[in-house]
Inverse folding.
C-alpha cells in the first residue's frame, strides 16, 4: 500500500501519481500547506475511511474517483483509501464473512440481497437522492431494496452492448446492426462465408460476466426464465429455453471457435487485434481502441442486444455502494456516499465513463453532457436500464437468484451445449437440478 503523507506531499502532487487498477492510495485530507481541515459531525478525526471498488478498463474512472474522494476527505479531517481490484467481489465476500476490514464496498449485481444482514440501512439517503434526481429506474430498486429497506445505493450500471465493426459489415452488404437474434445469425453466416473476421460472443465459465450478459438476455428474449414470477418455482425446463439454446447453437456454428474458451479479456484482445467482427462488452473496449487501435476505433460502433420472440430483454450489470455494518465510521461513509452521488460528482463520472458508469436516475437521461447525448455512436444506449432486469427475472431479485448467478448455472447451460460437452436435454436437466437446490424446489 502506498500512503501519501499528510505533511510531506502536496495534494496536487499526490493526485498526479499513477492511480490505476489494483493500486491502493490513501488520499490525504489536508490543504496545500499541509494543514488539516475538519467537517463537523462527520469528521473522521484523523482516521481513514477504507473501501473496495470495482476495477475497470478505463484508468480515468479510477483517477476521477480518487480525486473526488480526496476532495471530500479534505474537509473531513482524515483520509479515504480506495482499492480498485479485479477481484473486488471475492475480496468483499471475505470482508463480509469476517466482519472486519474495509468500511465500504462496491457491490455487483444483486449482492445486496446476499449480504443484506451485514449492510447498513441506506433508505433515507437513497430516497432523498431519488426524489432529487428524477426517480430511480425500477431495476435499481430490484437490486438494492431488501425487505423494504435500501441496503445499497444503486450508483450506476455498466451498459453491456454488442461492439461491431462497421467496415466488415459493409463488406457483406450490411449497414445497420441486426435488431433480432436470427438476423445476427444471418450476418454471422455472411461474415464466415466471406472469410472475414467472425462474430464472437463469449459463452464460457472463464468469462462469467460477459457470458452472463448474453446468456440471461438471450434466454429472456425467447420468453424463457430460470424461475416463475413467484420467485420459487423453477421454470428452466421449457420449450422457450430450448428455442434460446437452438439460437445459440446456430450462432456458435458460424462464430469464432474461441467463444467457448474466452476469459473476460480474451474477446477484447481479439477484437482490438482485428481478429473478430462482433463481441459483447462494455464500451470500455472503444475507449481502449481509441488509444491502442485507432483504425479499429474509427470503424466500430455499439448496438443494443437483439430482440427475440419476447422482445428486447437485457441483464443489467449493476454497480452499487454499500457500507458494511462492522464499520466504526458509518456516518462519515454515508456523508461520502451523499457527496459521490451528487450530480456534480456522479455526472462527471458518467461523462468520462462512456456508459461504463450509467446513472440509474432518470434525471440524467436528457443531460446534454451525457455520453449517449454527446456521442453519436452511443446514441442508442440512452435509457438502456428501462427495459433491463436483474438475475432471476421475472421473479424478484433475491438471495437465491444471486446465488444462481454466482453458480453460473445459466451460462453453463448454454456453454455445455455449444462446446459439445452435453446435449440440449441433458444440459437443461443439469441446470434444473442446480436451480431446484438453490430455490428449494
Amino acid at each position: 500500500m502506498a500512503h501519501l503523507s499528510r505533511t510531506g506531499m502536496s495534494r496536487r502532487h499526490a493526485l498526479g501519481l499513477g492511480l490505476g487498477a489494483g493500486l491502493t492510495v490513501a488520499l490525504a485530507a489536508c490543504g496545500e500547506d499541509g494543514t488539516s481541515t475538519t467537517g463537523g459531525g462527520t469528521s473522521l478525526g484523523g482516521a481513514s475511511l477504507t473501501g473496495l471498488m470495482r476495477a475497470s478498463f478505463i484508468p480515468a474512472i479510477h483517477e476521477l474517483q480518487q480525486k473526488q474522494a480526496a476532495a471530500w476527505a479534505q474537509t473531513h479531517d482524515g483520509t479515504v483509501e480506495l482499492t480498485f481490484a479485479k477481484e473486488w467481489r471475492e475480496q468483499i465476500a471475505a470482508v463480509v464473512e469476517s466482519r472486519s476490514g474495509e468500511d465500504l464496498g462496491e457491490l455487483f449485481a444483486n449482492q445486496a440481497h446476499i449480504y443484506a444482514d451485514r449492510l447498513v440501512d441506506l433508505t433515507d439517503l437513497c430516497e432523498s437522492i431519488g426524489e432529487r434526481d428524477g426517480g430511480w429506474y425500477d431495476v435499481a430498486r430490484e437490486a438494492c431494496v431488501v425487505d423494504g429497506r435500501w441496503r445499497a445505493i444503486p450508483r450506476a450500471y455498466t451498459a453491456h452492448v454488442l461492439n461491431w465493426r462497421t467496415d466488415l459489415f459493409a463488406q457483406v452488404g450490411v449497414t445497420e446492426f441486426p435488431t433480432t437474434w436470427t438476423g445476427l445469425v444471418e450476418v454471422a453466416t455472411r461474415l464466415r462465408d466471406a472469410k472475414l473476421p467472425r462474430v464472437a460472443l463469449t459463452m464460457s465459465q472463464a468469462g462469467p460476466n460477459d457470458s452472463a450478459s448474453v446468456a440471461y438476455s438471450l434466454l429472456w428474449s425467447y420468453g424463457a426464465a430460470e424461475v416463475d414470477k413467484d420467485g420459487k418455482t423453477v421454470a428452466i425446463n421449457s420449450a422457450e429455453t430450448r428455442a434460446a439454446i437452438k439460437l445459440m447453437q446456430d450462432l456458435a456454428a458460424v462464430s469464432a471457435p474461441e467463444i467457448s474458451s474466452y476469459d473476460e479479456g480474451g474477446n477484447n484482445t481479439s477484437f482490438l487485434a482485428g481478429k473478430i467482427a462482433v463481441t459483447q462488452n462494455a464500451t470500455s473496449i472503444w475507449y481502449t481502441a481509441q488509444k491502442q487501435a485507432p483504425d479499429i476505433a474509427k470503424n466500430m460502433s455499439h448496438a443494443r442486444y437483439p430482440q427475440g420472440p419476447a422482445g428486447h430483454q437485457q441483464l443489467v450489470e449493476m454497480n452499487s455502494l454499500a457500507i458494511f455494518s462492522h464499520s466504526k465510521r458509518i456516518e462519515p461513509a454515508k456523508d461520502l456516499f451523499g457527496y459521490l452521488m451528487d450530480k456534480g460528482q456522479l455526472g462527471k463520472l458518467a461523462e468520462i465513463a462512456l456508459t461504463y458508469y450509467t446513472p440509474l436516475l432518470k434525471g440524467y437521461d436528457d443531460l446534454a453532457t451525457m455520453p449517449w447525448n454527446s456521442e453519436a455512436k452511443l446514441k442508442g444506449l440512452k435509457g438502456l436500464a428501462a427495459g433491463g432486469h436483474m438475475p432471476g427475472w421475472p421473479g424478484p431479485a433475491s438471495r437465491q437468484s444471486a446465488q444462481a448467478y454466482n453458480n453460473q448455472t445459466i451460462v453453463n447451460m448454454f456453454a455445455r451445449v455449444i462446446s459439445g460437452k452435453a446435449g440440449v436435454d441433458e444440459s437443461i436437466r443439469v441446470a434444473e437440478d442446480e436451480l431446484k437446490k438453490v430455490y428449494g424446489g
User: Anything to note?
Assistant: Residues 46 and 78 are 4 Å apart (CA to CA). The two ends are 47 Å apart (CA to CA). Residues 1-40 have pLDDT under 50 and may be disordered.
